[in-house]
Amino acid sequence: MEAIKCTNVVKKYGGRLALDHLSTEIPTNSITGIVGRNGAGKTTLLKIIAGLTRETSGDIQVLGAHPFNSLQVSANSIFIDDVLSFPNTLTLLDILKEGERFYPNWQMDLARRLLEYFEMPEQMVHSYLSKGKKSTFNAVFGLATRSPLTIFDEPTTGMDASVRSDFYRALLKDYLAHPRTILISSHHVDEIEDLLEYVLLIDLGKTKLHKEIDDVRSFLIGIYGRTELLEHWVKEREVYYRRRIGDTETYVVIENHVEKEELEKLGFKTEAISCSDACVYVTNQRKGGIDDVFTRR
Amino acid sequence: MSSQGVKFWSIVWNQFLLKLKANTDMLTGLAIFQVIALIFSFGGNGSFNYGSGVEFNIYTSDLIVIFTMIWLIVIGVQVLRPAGALMTYSMIANRKVDHLSNIIWLIVMTGIATVAVLLANVLLQLITSYFSGGVSLLPEVQLSIGEYVVGVCTIGLYLLLASACGYFLGVLSQWNELVKVFIPILLIGALLIVPNMVSEGVIINVFTFIFLDELFLLFALKILIVTGLLFFMSMRMGNRLEVRK
At CA B125, angle to CA B121 and CA B130, rounded to 5? Predict the structure, then answer.
């Protein structure tokens, strides 16, 4: 059964479409990475799912209810991002105690041990924390709620590399012990790749790709070859990325529906495309790269 | 799927407790407002002279009440500030829970403010009778317990009305940023235009009808109805607003 079901969800800000008839289904008890370019609509989608923002049109069901203004959805979900803030009058421990009063699955022991591990004194005030520490605290808060639906929107903003990997590891461990539906949005797909079961790639407010992580990894293939030969061969295919190498060779990225032997016969070399590169290629506007900005005049 | 039955009122209560703890800094504002009011009150609110060298000075706690009302309007708006909303919704909440817990919190703040007004009043009496150098006529004024209670309740009701006004303004300004600009314009505009359109008597009558009833129970009823209406409209208008844009 799916935890989240979106059908033709539209969200308009002024005249601009942030979500453009987006439809998707997220299975219960899975970790899904929400991936996309800046402004693709990731945060908007997550806020609508968490019930913080209302969709302009379309239908959305979260845990069997319409999320906006729903106490049911709020009680069973948590939305964590780097904007989340707490007043100066509460210490970190006070905030954790407040969380304990609200969330039935609250893990006080886990939360306090995580704070200790990340070297955050319990008597600190939230707003005096550095940007990275704030993100870390918010992430700990999100983990401790153990909500059936846990949403992290760019949870690692400002965290250093070691804290990021520690956080992902903590998330994975807790998820394995207590499965729940987790959504993570991030720009660093390579960092969360090992964590994810599904990838939902959003581009221009639409679902571009929604696959299991292994299918995303094998979705595209990169091919090197002599320019004229390769160009002739890819004529009928959709090319996601094209780059000239020297004068005679070209590199293209296409969908992985090819026979390896055929390629070898033609003298082409192949290369696997990582998940994060695949996401970049799929959402490329195909109008050349950043180089063209400087060369074309 | 685990979807615990949600106990509405226990969440409202938890949110109220959270707001009580989170907004303790606003009480500092109350202290500052009342100190300012006290300083202004020391001068006396009026004096008259019957000749023969005897001068009467009148000291009242009107200013203390007025400044406390202003403070309540301010916190009524402030409790809706975005930082508070972020905190509220990082715990369990929906709009209804948020508004109800805010309103309960404002009622409690009104209670605290009423007590603070009474204490400030005592302080004012002490200081003026000590420093004015004259003879205090206060011991000559004997209030019955009934009169005292009615007086305290009247102050409390005025303060409650102020907090409801503040909250309503807060919700209005959440609807549109422009409201923040328009409200002062509308208020001042109304002050200038309305007296020209209707005769002065009508305004005074309306004002007197609502706010200055001789019968305490009728007065209380009217204030409570106006306050209730303001809170109700705030809830209705705020119900469809998005938490985060």
Answer: 150
